[in-house]
């Protein structure tokens, strides 16, 4: 301790050592005679000088607010109080300065100093471009930014061109000369993914990658992209090699939905830790940019949370008593505010127009209501009041020609505190004829519970499964112009619980899905002929190919542990292929965009089908004969090898004959003739039948 | 043609076999009474009474004089076929899993289970004269199997070797002069349930729990062909006249009760011997098929199932007419 003190003393009083020389002999710190100090302070004390206060220090605390009203001295105080009110929200204002012109008016820009740079930055972020009133908009900048902007060179330099990135052909899958469709097969939970081409006579695997996804995979709605899930986010793959097209960083994203035109993708990460306001993100697919993020939905909602209009122009989300419609590409609310609809329960966009249908639940004496709303002008083009409504389901026909609202109605209601019990249920189908003037509405009433409703995708029929478990019926209705829907056909006592229309209409597959199911029926709804009846035991799903030529039934390993795999059928119900695959989990046909041919052109093709028919027929024949030739060649080769092997063995066998005879008492048992020579014929009597006849 | 249904057993059939001429069909089951039937009309000729439990295996000698059976009552029994009398009983330490006569029937072989503290053992016995004294005679040869137990067994041609199929899927060929292993291969991943020789004995087919049946060369144990299914295969047989194979099996008997017959896949399935392609199925059993056998004339086959029935099915003309396309030159 003493020593240290002494040291300090030495440093402090280099001059005074002459006075106190009591304890130690001090060295001489004086510069020698003639010493020139040629080392500058900067070199010696660079680190210390670094922290020397500068003139500009504290400038980052200062913001410049431009665009303020210009006022005279008499109203300066008022202005100051307004500014203070707005800007003190971000932190304490320690200093302010209102420059004035010669005639006493303020200049319209002011300087405010905060306690620290964070507050200043916050103020800039929050108030820049904010409207004070109709005439005045704040333009707020950090003081330090001015230096940045003043340093921008006067001469504009053209940006150097970026190297051109070759984009692979995203539409290649549509260019196949034989119009073979592709499909995706998922094995296990992310174990492997395969992309196949449904070629004739044998499907070809185009791509197979283990661990391509961590969970499952989906196609985009037009089939351009394949989306896979990873813990870091979602990746899109496209092009002939399925190269990575885009990735969206969103940890633990579990749900995605595409906009119908594939411009945007919504990702939802219920558990991700990117902050609460980053649970739901909308991205631009082509650029990969995050367009807007949203906090998580308040409660349990059905996915997709955002539902898109058919042209990607709008997307909407359901809230408590409110429907929020957003616009693209600004991603702001349409007309800056949500549509207030008290008691709104569900909504659905038309697949062909910018019209949405929503329904509002009953409230005391106010009946339930179904409304068709046109956007962006928000006109209600049709609404219908409904009474005694327990629930509604909105079903648009795929071509947007009809809308069906299935209404669950009750005859009695019992309210127990929070519990509402309905009894005496019956069901209405409200059919809206969208293409007719004033949109007439027809009703069909059915007294039995409804298990399924499906529209014919192209056409004007719909099918329902109804009845109790003892007698499940399937009914087909035809919707006519200006008339109530007519019952076309009713099948009673059917085992089916699901309906799958061909994407082209007319044909339908009736199926019994589930662990106890498996029954299948292929039906032509033109004349209601049953084309085939078959089964695929315990099937868990059915997928029509986008052209309506093939149907796939599958048993997924996620639903059932035995006999996982898929069967490929023709639309008439002819089995084409059985593929058993351990761990088979997912089957998805690659979608196709809508046809570019006009209705007239399509009709033309249908009319001249016979002309094209023979050409395709001969092509098919050639292919199958080629395939069978290959098979025959393979078999011939196998048989040749086998015959060689057998010849060698027969020779060996023949050589061993004496030893065989020796072992069996010289009885030759080699021949097929099972009667050895010299054997004794024995008569065996069989008891055939016994008859008793009474003799008179 | 309508199959003959042979109802005589009270429990699951474990093995069936034709005699060399094919006029008789023998069956053993989990009840204690082996049966013999006229293969022509399915009438029962008689039963063999004596076993005290499950009977696992049987074999008939080439002259149809003696029958050998082995069972869960720890005995291997020999029967006189003319009278149906139990003429010799060999007591063993544990269940007899397999038993077979050699080509000449001068010798027999049987194997026991590894159970009750006793190892799995292979015994070779002299069967030239069969009488009471057999039970006290020492076997000609016996050896222990230390690793996985024997689940099926065959005599090689000419009485020189035997081939054992094991629980773990191994196949071992033993030289009987030295009692040593000649070949050992592992082509199956699970238990080998059954092995049957081709008519001339130069090839044999295995049926395994690993859902496949495989064809091997008898002398070299070389793998020749493979037939795949989606269910454990309990039995497989080679047609004596055509290049056909029949496979039988189905879902494990233990799991059957919880599911329907549709899922069990209890069909007898026909494959082409060389092309390994399936070309036909015969339905009928409502439990797994445990044993299959072609009639020596190749014109019918019999199957015995977990359901306790033996079904004898004659082939229609279309079976003989069916051909595969290949270049025959």
TrEMBL record, chain A:
Keywords: Cytoplasm, Initiation factor, Protein biosynthesis, Repeat, RNA-binding, WD repeat. Gene3D superfamilies: 3.30.70.330, YVTN repeat-like/Quinoprotein amine dehydrogenase. It comes from the Eukaryota. One of its GO terms (molecular function) is RNA binding. Residues 1-41 are annotated as: Disordered. Pfam families: eIF2A (PF08662), RRM_1 (PF00076). GO terms for cellular component: eukaryotic 43S preinitiation complex; eukaryotic 48S preinitiation complex; eukaryotic translation initiation factor 3 complex. One of its GO terms (biological process) is formation of cytoplasmic translation initiation complex. It is found in: Cytoplasm. InterPro entries: EIF3B, eIF3B_RRM, Nucleotide-bd_a/b_plait_sf, RBD_domain_sf, RRM_dom, TIF_beta_prop-like, WD40/YVTN_repeat-like_dom_sf. Residues 1-11 have a biased composition (Basic and acidic residues). Residues 17-41 have a biased composition (Acidic residues). Residues 61-145 form the RRM domain. RNA-binding component of the eukaryotic translation initiation factor 3 (eIF-3) complex, which is involved in protein synthesis of a specialized repertoire of mRNAs and, together with other initiation factors, stimulates binding of mRNA and methionyl-tRNAi to the 40S ribosome. The eIF-3 complex specifically targets and initiates translation of a subset of mRNAs involved in cell proliferation. Component of the eukaryotic translation initiation factor 3 (eIF-3) complex. The eIF-3 complex interacts with pix. Interacts with mxt. Belongs to the eIF-3 subunit B family. This is Eukaryotic translation initiation factor 3 subunit B. It comes from Bicyclus anynana (Squinting bush brown butterfly). The gene is LOC112056260.
UniProtKB/TrEMBL annotation, chain B:
Its main location: cytoplasm. Keywords: Cytoplasm, Initiation factor, Protein biosynthesis, Repeat, WD repeat. The keyword Repeat applies. Pfam families: EIF3I. One of its GO terms (molecular function) is translation initiation factor activity. Component of the eukaryotic translation initiation factor 3 (eIF-3) complex. Belongs to the eIF-3 subunit I family. This is Eukaryotic translation initiation factor 3 subunit I. It comes from Bicyclus anynana.
């Amino acid at each position: 301790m003493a020593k240290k003190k002494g040291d300090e003393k030495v440093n402090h009083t280099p001059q005074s050592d002459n006075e106190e020389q009591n304890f130690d002999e001090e060295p001489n710190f004086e510069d020698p005679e003639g010493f020139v100090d040629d080392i500058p302070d900067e070199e010696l004390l660079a680190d210390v000088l670094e922290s020397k206060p500068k003139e500009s220090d504290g400038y980052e605390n200062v913001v410049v607010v431009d665009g303020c009203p210009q006022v005279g001295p008499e109203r300066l105080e008022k202005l100051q109080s307004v500014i203070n009110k707005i800007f003190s929200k971000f932190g304490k204002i320690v200093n302010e300065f209102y420059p004035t012109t010669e005639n006493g008016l303020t200049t319209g820009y002011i300087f405010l100093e905060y306690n620290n740079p964070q507050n200043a930055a916050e103020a800039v972020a929050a108030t820049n471009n904010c409207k004070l009133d109709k005439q005045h908009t704040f333009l707020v900048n950090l003081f330090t930014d001015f230096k940045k902007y003043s340093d921008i060179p006067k001469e504009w330099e053209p940006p150097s061109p970026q190297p051109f990135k070759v984009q692979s052909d995203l539409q290649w899958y549509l260019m196949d000369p034989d119009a073979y469709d592709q499909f995706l097969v998922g094995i296990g939970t992310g174990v492997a993914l395969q992309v196949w081409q449904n070629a004739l006579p044998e499907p070809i695997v185009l791509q197979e990658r283990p661990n391509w996804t961590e969970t499952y995979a989906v196609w985009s709605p037009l089939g351009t992209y394949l989306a896979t899930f990873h813990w870091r986010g979602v990746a899109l793959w496209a092009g002939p090699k399925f190269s990575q097209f885009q990735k969206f960083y969103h940890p633990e994203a579990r749900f995605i939905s595409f906009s119908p035109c594939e411009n945007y993708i919504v990702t939802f990460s219920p558990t991700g830790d990117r902050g609460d306001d980053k649970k739901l993100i909308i991205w631009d697919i082509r650029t990969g940019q995050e367009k807007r993020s949203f906090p998580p939905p308040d409660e349990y909602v059905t996915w997709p949370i955002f539902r898109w209009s058919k042209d990607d122009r709008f997307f909407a989300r359901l809230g408590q008593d409110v429907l929020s419609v957003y616009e693209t590409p600004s991603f702001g609310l349409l007309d800056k505010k949500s549509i207030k609809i008290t008691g709104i329960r569900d909504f659905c966009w038309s697949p062909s127009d910018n019209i949405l249908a929503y329904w509002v639940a009953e409230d005391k004496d106010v009946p339930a209501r179904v409304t068709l709303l046109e956007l962006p002008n928000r006109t209600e083009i049709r609404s219908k009041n409904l009474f005694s409504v327990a629930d509604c389901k909105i079903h648009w026909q795929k071509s947007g020609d009809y809308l069906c609202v299935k209404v669950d109605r009750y005859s009695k209601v019992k309210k127990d505190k929070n519990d509402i019990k309905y009894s005496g249920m019956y069901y209405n189908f409200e059919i809206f004829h969208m293409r007719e003037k004033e949109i007439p509405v027809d009703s069909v009433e059915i007294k039995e519970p409804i298990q399924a409703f499906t529209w014919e995708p192209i056409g004007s029929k719909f099918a329902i499964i109804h009845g109790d478990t003892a007698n499940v019926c399937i009914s087909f209705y035809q919707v006519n112009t200006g008339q109530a829907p007519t019952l076309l056909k009713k099948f009673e006592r059917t085992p089916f619980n699901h309906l799958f229309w061909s994407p082209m209409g007319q044909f339908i597959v009736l199926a019994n899905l589930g662990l106890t199911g498996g029954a299948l029926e292929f039906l032509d709804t033109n004349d209601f002929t049953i084309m085939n009846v078959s089964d695929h035991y315990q099937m868990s799903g059915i997928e029509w190919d986008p052209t309506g030529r093939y149907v796939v039934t599958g048993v997924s390993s996620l639903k059932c542990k035995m006999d996982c795999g898929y069967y490929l059928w023709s639309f008439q119900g002819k089995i084409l292929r059985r593929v058993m695959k351990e761990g088979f989990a997912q089957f998805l046909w690659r979608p196709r965009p809508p046809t570019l041919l006009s209705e007239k052109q399509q009709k033309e093709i249908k009319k001249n089908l016979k002309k094209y028919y023979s050409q395709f027929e001969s092509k098919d024949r050639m292919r199958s004969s080629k395939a069978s030739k290959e098979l025959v060649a393979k078999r011939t080769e196998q048989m040749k090898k086998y015959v060689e092997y057998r010849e060698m063995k027969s020779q060996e066998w023949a050589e061993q004959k004496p030893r065989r005879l020796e072992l069996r008492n010289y009885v030759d048992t080699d021949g097929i003739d099972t009667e050895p020579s010299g054997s004794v014929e024995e008569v065996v009597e069989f008891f055939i039948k016994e008859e008793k006849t009474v003799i008179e | 043609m309508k199959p003959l249904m042979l109802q005589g057993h009270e429990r699951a059939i474990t093995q069936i076999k034709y005699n060399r001429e094919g006029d008789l069909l023998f069956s053993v089951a989990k009840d204690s009474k082996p049966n013999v039937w006229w293969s022509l009309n399915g009438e029962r000729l008689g039963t063999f009474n004596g076993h005290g439990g499950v009977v696992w295996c049987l074999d008939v000698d080439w002259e149809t004089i003696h029958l050998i059976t082995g069972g869960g009552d720890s005995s291997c029994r020999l029967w006189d076929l003319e009278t149906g009398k139990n003429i010799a009983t060999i007591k063993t330490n544990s269940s007899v899993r397999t038993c077979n006569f050699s080509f000449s029937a001068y010798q027999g072989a049987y194997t026991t289970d590894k159970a009750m503290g006793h190892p799995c053992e292979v015994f070779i016995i002299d069967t030239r004269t069969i009488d009471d004294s057999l039970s006290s005679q020492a076997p000609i040869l016996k050896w222990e199997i230390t690793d996985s137990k024997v689940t099926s067994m065959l005599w090689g041609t000419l009485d020189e070797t035997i081939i054992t199929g094991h629980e773990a899927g191994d196949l071992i060929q033993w030289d009987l002069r030295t009692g040593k292993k000649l070949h050992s291969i592992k082509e199956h991943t699970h238990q080998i349930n059954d092995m049957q020789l081709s008519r001339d004995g130069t090839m044999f087919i295995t049926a395994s729990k690993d859902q496949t049946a495989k064809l091997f060369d008898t002398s070299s144990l070389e793998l020749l062909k493979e037939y795949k299914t989606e269910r454990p295969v309990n039995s497989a047989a080679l047609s004596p006249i055509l290049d056909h194979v029949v496979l039988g099996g189905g879902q494990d008997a233990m799991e059957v009760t919880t599911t329907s017959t549709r899922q069990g896949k209890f069909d007898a399935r026909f494959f082409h011997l060389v092309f390994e392609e399936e070309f036909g199925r015969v339905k009928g059993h409502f439990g797994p098929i445990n044993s299959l056998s072609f009639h020596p004339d190749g014109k019918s086959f019999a199957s015995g199932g977990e359901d306790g029935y033996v079904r004898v099915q004659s082939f229609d003309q279309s079976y003989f007419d069916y051909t595969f396309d290949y270049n025959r030159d």
